[in-house]
Queue: 2 jobs
Job 1
Amino acid sequence: MMEIVTTQYKHCDLVKPIGRIDSYTAPQLGAMLQALYDDDHFKIVIDLSEVQYMSSAGLLILVFFQKTCKNYNHGEILLAGIPESIQLTFQLAGFDKLFRCYHDAISAVTSL
Amino acid sequence: MVTKIYSGENKNLAAISSFIVDQAGRAGFSSRNIYAIQTAVDEACSNIIDHAYGGEGLGFIKVNVDILDSAIKITITDDGLPFNPDEVPEPDLQNAFENRKERGLGIYFMRKLMDEVSFDFSNKHHNTLVMIKKRDIVS
């Protein structure tokens, strides 16, 4: 099960998935990011602090939208609050080099 | 030894993970290693649904957990199509961001996170994957 909470700021959007991101729920996150992209929102902070598990399916969606958003008007996806457990696979995949990562969502939002 | 059988559907991945997390916890693994084992099993089951069955609801996934003195041994069985894991390329982790190809990440995680990963496609009726994670050494 996963729930996604979004908050719109003047200069960016905050997306907070809550729960588990696997092959079943990752398309839900992908659809949310696609909807933002379709509305020309290319600066997005994803707060992962309440994600208990993220599989490669979730990681690949983050990478896909990072590539997509960076193509448009200085767009970028920033990550915040990555739990220690998820850091394990995140670093194994080398994705820590592909994102600017922040301790918490507010730090990420104010850095954009 | 505990065995559970699930229908090969993505909605069952959460239940499979719960089972594995519970078993690895009972076996005394650290939270970091429980997460590693959970990831390896989740990626294996996702691959079975996507590649062995080529879709959801087309077969079963049997997950067997054997807690040994020195390790946890997880055996996953399906009756989908065999595939050669050696033909799955390792993900391209060094290439430039724009050119990266991300295929094979699931098997890469399985091999990196577990101590032993072995596939057996010799049986005509089912495929078997055995993964072993050794116990944390407490000094």
Job 2
Amino acid sequence: MKKITIDPITRLEGHGRIEIFLNDEGDVENAYLQIPELRGFEKFCEGRPVEEMPRITPRICGVCPGAHHMASTKATDAVYHVDPPPAARKLRELFYCAHMIHSHIAHFYALAAPDFVLGPMSDPAERNILGLVSKVGLEVGGEVIKHRAYAQDIQAVIGGKATHPVCGLPGGMSKPITEEERKDFEEKAKSEVEFGKFGLKLFDDLVLANKEYLELITGDIYTMNSYYMGMVDDNNKVNFYDGNLRVVDPAGKEVAKFKPADYLDHIAEHTEPWSYLKFPFLKKVGWKGMVDGNDSGVFRVNSLARLNVADGMATPLAQAEYEKMFETLGGKPVHATLAFHWARLIEILYAAERLLELCRDDEITSPEVRTIPTATPDEGVGVIEAPRGVLIHHYQTDDRGIIEKVNLIVATVMNNPAMNISVRRAARGLIKKGQVASEGLLNMVEMAFRAYDPCMACATHTLPGQMPLEVIIYNCKREVIERFSRL
Amino acid sequence: MRDVNFKALVLGLGNPILSDDGIGCHVAAALKERLQETEADVLEAGIAGLDFLDLMTGYDKVIIIDAIQTGEGAPGQIYRLDLEAFNGTRHAASPHDVNFATALELGRRLGMPLPSHIDIFAIEVADTSCFSEECTPEVSEVIPLCVEMIVQELRSSTLKT
């Protein structure tokens, strides 16, 4: 049999790419991040019944099916002008807290922590979750797997399927949970709270206690003075499932707070000839190019953005950690891109505490989980905080509920301008006089965009099991001088 | 005779609404029709990384079907791979999840009951970026062949000598 070795670099398309251009002096002139785009989704949806969308949209992405399912379900509520009963809303939020935990754990422990625990310049063969467990102990790996599995179990029971949920319907949920299931969730939620605390302790011991890492986090190359957008509840606390979208400026002042349905009044999209992805910006501030600051409409979403726009966390342990983060990093808002990781850990704790609260809610096992829609369907917007940030689903239908138009704005696209700025700034700060060749330095450039937990496409499963990333460096004559692939 | 204690899982990976990307799911769906329930569990999933561990735990043998783009083969070409093919990538991190080999290695170190045999059927694909429930013709054509290969593989490995 012919022996085949898989080399992702041979993939002709479909991988992310960072291109770095050097000037005559060998310094970074510019850098671009390119992310592949999947085509034809709108066309694919047209002509289908809108209630199919919550089952179709989780297929867009193998990484965040729960987020698409919930945003889509909320959009169908809006299309049918129906309010789900309280128990259905709570059950959705419970499911969704489990989803956040599941997603954030993978990102932190598998992708972010190795850079800090083993060091950003350490041997790439060691700089991964295997190296991490070698260093901090095998039992940590066991806890990571266990708590991801707990979160997954909760999603599977409510969602009806292990990976692609089918529970959300216009006006509610397909079925309630039993008392036995509630008890099981409660035990798991208690354990998730402990694990959430553990994550922050680990961050304290391994990252914050290390002066070098703290300097890295707060240093110029990973700082960006942008606007932020995120969802808040009636008390301006972080909420993943429902609320208004709030925007703060680079000084932390609220400049907008709006209902998700009004997103088109606030978000516009710029296009560039070199990128498949669009570049969303704040309409009222305007597009000033790939720059940060008060005059540029570039904004950021995801964990740190959520904490920056909110007045606090709605649960006590997460609130204490929230205060500690802002105190340590010099007050609100925090512009340190690497602090997205810290914020993510605080969110795991919040999601776990909220999960436990919901498990103990008297109404959570109520059989009243559906309001049957009676209005004529027309148009609706559903917004949720995906693990990666604000996710918008907007559908228009005919009077039979058949899809005529679909618009989705996903979080990774919202962060596209910011990721480009962050990558360029890191490249400029790290690559000087053409001295680029080290893998560690390029890893540090990548860290600038990895902090955003970008979801680069939906083909994550295509062998060899991930989306490869390529870094290409050009000299002043536009000749390729280095090419690295992150396999 | 068949060893009744031998547990096999067939895992079709991919996105069934993204053209050829969903070939693993299409083959798995066809296999469900073809196999008796006792022969193997058949699952279709669009997953990656650490999620593999949850699904594979407790099986003796796992067969994975997925799309591949080697850039060299013709669309529809079927490759039979084993984990060694991934040795070059085992220790690398990916932009959003660990790769398959890393996830397995972690599971082994943690002492999880993972399968001793993992076979991979990878099908060379052409289009993985347009939304469609159909694969391209060259790729669709090989579904029956791939199904037969997997049926043979399962039946030969579950027979006691």
